[in-house]
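Posting this for the archive.
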Amino acid sequence: MLSFFLPDGFISNEEMDMRSTMRSSWTKMVDHAEEVQDELNEKQRGFQSDLLNDIRMFGEEVSTFR
């Protein structure tokens, strides 16, 4: 977008190369973030089921204690 509004030759070739590198780096980072998020969601399911079981058992133990 910046290169569209600036006059020709205003952005150097080095900056254009950096821009293309930044685009690919951004894409890689987003892909990696999605992979990590998927992995965390998988782990979260296991922890959530364990937590619900522990809460149920705690409720039963409290009832027994009373």
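Residues 34-66 form one domain. Residues 24 and 30 are 10 Å apart (CA to CA).
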